[in-house]
Q: What sequence folds into this?
């Protein structure tokens, strides 16, 4: 099977279901940003030693692929794909709560960095926020499963707490924001 089809050479692509849309369509922007997040998450996973954390991150990668697939479907088609369930959101909340038990309470804003894994977790957080904004924009124009938005919102919170956990595990000092 050839990877290149040349069908996108004019700036259009096909959704699942066959509908042709511009490559800068909100739907394409939405699932493209999810794909970008998933790629960055793949890099972050290579830096993680904690097997329980890795297991959840691998599951998150699968859910992100599910979200991208759902967003890639022509909304006028009869195609139905598995999306995000309430228990997927709960798993993120459980992870956040479990990680927070290991951390000092947050008393100030912190900056990304301190170690490489922390910085990459913050990159995942910011890409996730952008993906969330793109999906919200899409939801204003077309019907979007609200669980996708909830999941992305919770996921960005998860990445923030994960970044703190990674600093803690590496015995790195969190960089506190210092206002002028």
A:
């Amino acid at each position: 099977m050839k990877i290149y089809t040349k069908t996108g050479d004019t700036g259009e692509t096909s959704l699942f279901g066959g509908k042709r849309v511009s490559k800068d369509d909100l739907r394409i922007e939405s699932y493209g940003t999810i794909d970008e997040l998933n790629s960055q998450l793949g890099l972050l996973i290579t830096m993680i030693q904690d097997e329980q954390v890795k297991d959840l991150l691998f599951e998150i990668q699968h859910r992100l692929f599910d979200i991208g697939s759902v967003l890639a479907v022509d909304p006028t088609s009869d195609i139905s794909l598995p999306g995000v369930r309430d228990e997927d959101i709960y798993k993120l909340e459980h992870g956040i709560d479990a990680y927070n038990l290991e951390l000092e309470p947050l008393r100030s804003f912190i900056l990304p960095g301190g170690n490489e894994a922390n910085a990459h977790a913050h990159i995942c957080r910011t890409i996730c926020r952008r993906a969330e904004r793109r999906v919200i924009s899409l939801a204003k124009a077309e019907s979007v499963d609200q669980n996708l938005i909830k999941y992305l919102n919770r996921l960005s919170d998860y990445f923030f707490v994960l970044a703190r956990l990674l600093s803690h595990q590496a015995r790195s000092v969190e960089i506190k924001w210092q206002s002028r």
